[in-house]
Amino acid sequence: MANKWTEKDIEKVTANKVFGNDFGDLSNEQLEALKTKGLVKKKTLSNTAIKESKFKNKKTIIDGITFDSKKESQRYSTLKALQDSGKIKDLQMQVKYRIVIDSYKICTYIADFSYKDLTTFLQPTIVEDVKSEYTKKMPIYRLKKKLMLAVFGIEIKEV
To answer: Is the pTM value of this prediction over 0.85?
Structure first.
């Protein structure tokens, strides 16, 4: 591999969206070229280039499970305690809902948490998404939230 990257090489990296992949075979000079283009935000000790989180979240590990944010991991701890105390059951994470209308797949919504609330009979299955004020307002999320209600009759609880 050559030491210098051309503009075409950098565009190829961008087009292939290889952010977060292992770039261990790149030289420091090549990593710097990507960094100056804004394609790489930081470099780990293993010479792997990783793009910084879009929303400045910090990944957190609890019970061997990696969460996208500290807020999400805290919510998991709360829900786990509720499950241990018998107030909820069937706690699931990253539940996928395939939204299909007239046999056309529109999108897939991935809920952070889903569980059965044993304290109420109004909505026994709860679907939760951990959101910041900013991400609550994102158009794609708002659309998926409306589709979940229209297609499945599920109202997403934002935490």
So the answer is: no
